[in-house]
Amino acid sequence: MATQTLTADNFQKTVEDGGIVLIDFWADWCGPCKQFGPVYEAASAEHEDIVFGKVDTDAQQELAGALNISSIPTVMAFRDGVLLHGQPGAMPAPMLSDLIQQVRDLDMDDVRRKIAEQEQSSDS
């Protein structure tokens, strides 16, 4: 599957629709973003069951600000609407593949249980 452009209008729905969603926050003037772009595109072709989104931080400044994106490129990984990874820096292909495998391997019932426990302990 090719990458899709995400904006403030479709970001939330894309993340909440379920499954695995990877998002690359980038800008046209960013050298590391340009180097990472082909790696990200290749991964999107290899993993057709995953949504690969791209957010142009210049065009979507409000969205990038709401997500506290302070350095680009930044890759975020969501699964079933839950943010699992958010880290700046261009990744080499093996590192991106490893991230994808880690997200695939997670027991989401366990993740949701841990989130619920953290929310309960912070409410006390």
Automatic annotation (TrEMBL):
Q: Which domain of life is it from?
A: Bacteria
Keyword hit for DNA repair: no
Instruction: Kindly give the PROSITE patterns that the UniProt entry links to this protein.
Output: THIOREDOXIN_1, THIOREDOXIN_2
Q: Tell me which residues make up the Thioredoxin domain.
A: 1-105
The Gene Ontology CC terms held by the record are: cytosol
SUPFAM superfamilies reported in the protein's UniProt record: Thioredoxin-like
Please name the catalytic residues of this protein.
30, 33
Disulfide bridge map = 30-33
Q: Cite the GO molecular-function annotations of the record.
A: protein-disulfide reductase activity
Which residues of this protein are annotated with the site description Deprotonates C-terminal active site Cys? 24
Q: Which UniProt keywords apply?
A: Disulfide bond, Electron transport, Redox-active center, Transport
Marked site, Contributes to redox potential value, at 31-32
User: Pfam families, alphabetically?
Assistant: Thioredoxin
Member of which family? Answer: Belongs to the thioredoxin family.
Instruction: Enumerate the PANTHER family for this protein.
Output: GEO12009P1, THIOREDOXIN 2
Q: Spell out the protein name for this chain.
A: Thioredoxin
Q: Which organism's genome codes for this protein?
A: Luteipulveratus mongoliensis
